[in-house]
Specification:
Layout (H helix, E strand, L loop, with lengths): L16 E4 L32 H4 L3 E3 L3 E12 L8 E2 L5 E2 L9 E14 L5 E4 L3 E2 L5 E3 L1 E7 L1 E5 L1 E4 L2 E10 L2 E7 L8 E4 L19 E6 L5 E11 L2 E4 L10 E8 L3 E3 L6 E4 L7 E5 L6 E5 L5 E4 L1
Parallel strand pairs: 1-21
Antiparallel strand pairs: 1-7, 2-22, 3-6, 3-10, 3-11, 4-5, 6-8, 9-20, 10-19, 11-15, 12-13, 13-14, 14-23, 16-17, 17-18, 17-19, 21-24, 22-23
């Protein structure tokens, strides 16, 4: 998000912001797990394995041909906006359903949302909203608000046969299933309402599937958290298990080991994304589908320049 050097923090730029589908950290790994997968899976799908691969393996990730996400807001925070969301020593996530944005400063904001396709490694300008220069300071936390509906398209070769995604209605939800006819290759929209079941609600009264939390100790290190949410005006409220299925947003927060530093010399904040080997998940299908497809993570990182 590019803004000029300014001496007054009361001023802000309306110049173009930018995002690029390049390198990033695993920001939404657990947030966007495929249906029926209870935990995050970082396995990249092997090239043309045998047709029995999914008999003994869980889901894996591929690079999608389409990965559309609607971005409403991104920014930086002085304190953790999801402080009451955490994981215990067993890796289970718990939440108090509180989103506290009192110390957060948006750097891009669009109340209508900006739909971008992150596939293909293209760079995008963040238009149609406000690009805002945050006050100088050290920000230990970053956040992002996105729609919980993802436009996806992907294919995978298994046992010498390529299976192409297409959209079908299953159990009242739109899902991505496979078809061996390339002429049926199409995009589908997947709505995430439960971090365990994907487009379906976990039948158990279990708060763990309404939130995620994970710590990364390699690569770009830090702690990520996320909750499913609804929005009223500009106020985001975390979705409870009792209200599963009503979510319209995902609120994600990341606390990197090295905080983002904004000085008076800082000219902008670039957010980089990657979906390579992760944007769509593939898992064994149910008859008549050999494989099925689900949402995989996109991964943004924040860098001041």
């Amino acid at each position: 998000m590019k803004f000029p050097k300014i001496s007054s923090f009361a001023s802000y730029s309306k110049n173009f912001s930018r995002i690029s589908a390049t390198l990033g950290f695993y920001f939404l790994t657990s947030l966007l797990s495929s249906p029926n997968q209870a935990s995050a899976n970082t396995t990249v799908c092997p090239t043309n394995p045998s047709s029995s691969y999914f008999n003994t393996n869980g889901s894996c990730f591929i690079t999608p041909d389409v990965y559309k996400v609607t971005i409403y807001e991104m920014g930086l925070c002085l304190s953790d906006p999801l402080e009451g969301t955490y994981h215990n020593s067993s890796g289970q996530t718990f939440t108090d359903y509180v989103i506290d944005e009192s110390t957060c400063s948006p750097t891009y904001k669009n109340s209508n949302g900006l739909l971008v396709n992150l596939a293909g490694g293209a760079s995008h300008t963040l238009t149609g909203g406000s690009n805002i220069r945050p006050s100088a300071g050290t920000y230990p936390h970053a956040y992002i608000k996105v729609k919980n509906v993802f436009g996806l398209k992907g294919s995978y070769t298994l046992g010498g046969t390529t299976y192409y995604s297409k959209s079908v209605m299953q159990n009242g939800a739109v899902n991505g299933v496979s078809d061996s006819e390339e002429s049926n290759y199409s995009e589908w929209n997947e709505t995430l309402v439960d971090f365990d079941k994907g487009s379906e609600c976990e039948p158990l009264e279990d708060q763990r599937w309404m939130a995620v939390s994970q710590t990364f100790t390699t690569g770009v290190t830090g702690n990520l958290k996320g909750v499913l949410a609804n929005v009223n005006g500009e106020t985001y409220s975390a979705t409870t298990q009792a209200n599963c299925g009503t979510s319209t947003r995902i609120f994600g927060a990341f606390s990197p080991t090295n905080p983002v530093v904004i000085t008076e010399e800082t000219e902008g904040l670039e957010v980089s994304f990657t979906i390579t080997n992760r944007g769509v998940s593939v898992f064994g299908g149910n008859n008549p589908y050999v494989v099925e497809f689900g949402t995989g993570p996109f991964t943004p990182s924040f860098a001041a320049f």
